[in-house]
């Protein structure tokens, strides 16, 4: 899997440069040289596809930006689902964004996941790669340096509640409020990568994106967002559920399927489970 890890690291350096330009292509108009500007997330998708195309062990890729999966090498064994630039609408307000990768063996699906990774583009560029352990790496110039292993505490202090409040179930609102009543602090930027990165690095807490009256299956995508982070949280000693079930045990039917999701340390996840079990 080292070749995949290297390709992700190379693509992250190129994405960092792609973000750090004046015109991020929202206009989709011609630039000063007369070329049509690509939207930033499409550009990032192309960068990753290009880096993965030279990795023989990759069988198939699926991107949040592509409607269908794409065969790369029929003799490869890894299936990679990625979101090239999650939270891309935050770039114009200069908040952190990220790329997310789920690495599956032989086929897509939570049960086939063998590793996952994300890169956060903030004031610094950092990468978390989870295989047997969840490891943090920092980009220094053109080099990636291992920083530390990430382990969650049993209980955290941060609460990141996603979704539109007016569409929350009343019991969900009560649960979110109960964490605040216990002293939890609100931390929500609207970017899944930095929001979850913060919880992972500050020792714990809860990130929730529930099913709501307008989106009963939630917003976040199983293959590109939910499974990769579930794998990382579980590897770091935390939990990841859809309200009831461990996210790493649920199925998917279509590559763009979504799921309600809750990621956190053990204490918060136990509370979510209890609340959701009694409101089935
Ligand atoms: O899937 C895209 C995304 O931007 C995630 O990164 C983020 O967690 C979520 O959507 C935010 O959604 P909302 O704006 O509904 O809180």
Question: How would you describe this structure to a colleague?
Answer:
With 280 residues, this protein is α+β, with helices and mostly antiparallel strands. It has two domains: 2-149, Fructose-1,6-Bisphosphatase, subunit A, domain 1 (Fructose-1,6-Bisphosphatase, Chain A, domain 1, 2-Layer Sandwich), CATH 3.30.540; 158-277, D-Maltodextrin-Binding Protein, domain 2 (3-Layer(aba) Sandwich), CATH 3.40.190. It is 28% helix and 26% strand. The chain contains six helices and 13 strands. The strands form two sheets. The chain has an eight-stranded mixed beta sheet with strand order 2-1-3-4-5-6-7-8, sandwiched between helices. The chain has a five-stranded mixed beta sheet with strand order 10-9-11-13-12, with helices on both faces. Helix 3 runs antiparallel to helix 6 (266-277). 6-O-phosphono-beta-D-fructofuranose is lined by residues 86-87, 162-163, 190-192, 219-220. 6-O-phosphono-beta-D-fructofuranose binds at residues 86-87, 162-163, 190-192, 219-220.
In total, the number of strands is: 13
Looking at the structure, the CATH topology of the largest domain is: Fructose-1,6-Bisphosphatase, Chain A, domain 1
Oligomer category: single chain
Give unreliable regions as ranges. Answer: none
Share of helix, binned: 25-40%
Overall structural class, as computed from helix and strand content, comes to alpha+beta
